[in-house]
Amino acid sequence: MKKEAIYTVNAPKPGPYSQAIKYGNLIFVAGQTSEDPGTGKPVHDSIAQQTERILNNTAAILEAAGSSLDKVLKTTVYISSMDHKAEMSEAYKKFFPNDPPARLTVAVAGIDDGLDVEIDFIAAAE
């Protein structure tokens, strides 16, 4: 199998990494923050708005890879405080109303650009 780097202008421009890598029937999406793909600037809105921006950006990446949020198998959610978990979860479940993916949520210090939420994803390609 050969790995394929995925890129779309409809999601934030990556640094020295790929937005996603497709390998076989899996897609590994790099950690996404609430950066606005149009301006390239982080959006420091509420936890819910950051989460929604992340999921919209990820939907664009998965679409470019020939997949969708419906095919997400696992996520890892990094939040700046467990005090934000309920608000993040409310926004998150709007995107995964049925059969949500497996998920790990951890509180971490130092999310890029002083943001409060970052999420990475593993999805099925087919």
What's a quick, concise take on this entry?
Helices cover 23% and strands 29% of the residues. The protein is α+β, with helices and mostly antiparallel strands.
Could you explain the architecture of this structure?
This protein has two helices and six strands; from the N terminus they run E-E-E-H-E-H-E-E. Helix 1 runs parallel beside helix 2. The mean pLDDT is 96. The protein has a six-stranded mixed beta sheet, with helices on one face. It starts with a strand and ends with a strand. It has a single domain, classed as RutC-like (60s Ribosomal Protein L30, Chain: A, 2-Layer Sandwich), CATH 3.30.1330. The protein is globular. By secondary structure, it is α+β, with helices and mostly antiparallel strands.
* Beta-strand share of residues: 25-35%
Distance between the termini: 15 Å
* CATH-defined topology: 60s Ribosomal Protein L30, Chain: A
- Cα gyration radius (Å): 14 Å
Mind describing the biggest β-sheet? Answer: 6 strands, mixed
Return the structural class. alpha+beta
Q: How many distinct folded domains? A: 1
**How many helix segments?**
2
Low-confidence stretches: none
Secondary-structure element series: EEEHEHEE
CATH architecture: 2-Layer Sandwich
**Helicity range:** 10-25%
Question: Overall mean pLDDT score?
Answer: 96
Shape: globular
What top-tier CATH class fits best?
A: Alpha Beta
Order of strands, main sheet, comes to: 1-2-3-6-4-5
The CATH superfamily appears as RutC-like
Number of strands: 6
